[in-house]
Model the fold of this input.
Amino acid sequence: MRTAMTSKICVLGSINMDVAVRVDRFPQAGETITGLACEFMPGGKGANQAIAAANMGVTVDLIGSLGDDEFGKLLRNHLVASGVNTDAVVQTESSSGTAIVMVNGEGNNQIVVIPGSNTLLQRKTIDEYLDRQGSAVRYLVSQFEVPLDLVSYAFGKAKSLRATTVLNPSPMQVIPPELIEQTDLFVLNALELAQVVGLANFICSPDEAAQMAFRWQQKIGQKTVVVTLGENGLAAVHGDQVIKQPSQKVDHVEDTTGAGDCFCGCLVAFLHNGYSFNESLALAQKAAAYSVQRKGASPSFPRLESLGINETKGKTS
Done:
C-alpha cells in the first residue's frame, strides 16, 4: 500500500552546462572550421529528463551532483525554475559537468561530455533520498552519465520499494546482468540497440528495430523495450505486443539536442499520469517532435498546453 504522500518520478542522473556551437557542417579529422555561434544552455541527460517530465505536470525529484562554481549556481536555478525539486542535488568542490555540443545546418549534433561533479555522486545521497521518500517514488529513471554502480544500486533499492525502474543506457556501456534484471523499461535509440545486441553497423528500419527488440526482450525476460528511430519513428515491445509507430511530422528540424531525453521524460510522465502505453508513446513522440523544431535541450521542451493537453489524465497519489 502506498503512502499518502503525492506519488512522484525520481530521476537519478547528470546535470551539465551545454556549450552549444553551431556550424554549417561538422569538421573532418584535423580540420579547423569557422563556427556560426556559441551559446551556453542547461543540459545533462538527468536534468533534461527531469525537466521534460516536470513540464508534463508531474512531481519530479532529481538526484544529482553540481560543482561549487558559477555553472552550478546557474544550473540549480534553472532546475528550480523548471519545477524540479533539487533537495537531493548535492554540491561538491569539483567543477560542474559540461558538454560540448556541435549542431550542424541540418540540426544534427555531435556531443562530447566532461562529467565533472557528476562522477562524485555517492550512495549516501541515494540512501537518504529513498529512505525518506519510500513508496512515494513510483518511477525511478536513470542513464549512464553517472557512475554505473550507483545506477544499479539505486535500481535495486527502488525495486524493494515497488517502484518501476526506467533505464536509458546512454552513453552506451555494457549493461551488467543484475542491472538488466532490475530494470522494467528500457528506452534506447537505434545505435544503442545495435550495441546492446552486439551488431556493428545496424541500419535500423522500424521493422528491423522491432524484430531486434523482440529478440532481445525474449533473451532478457519480459521487459518493456522502446527503441527511438528519429525520423523513422519508433519500435517497442511491451508484453506480447510488438509496436511500430511512424514519426510525428515536423515543419523543420532546428536542433535534435535533447530530443531523446524529452521523449524519455515525457513517456514516463504520461505513464505516471494514467495514459495507456500506446497513448504515452504517441504523446512522447509529439513532445520530441515539438522540441526538435527549437534550439537547445530543455529550453526547447514543451509544456502540456503546447501539446494541446489541458490537464493530467489520471494523476495518482
In short: The chain has a mean pLDDT of 92. Residues 93 and 240 are 49 Å apart (CA to CA). The domain at 8-27+34-307 is CATH 3.40.1190.20 (UDP-N-acetylmuramoyl-L-alanine:D-glutamate ligase). The chain is about 35% helix and 25% strand.
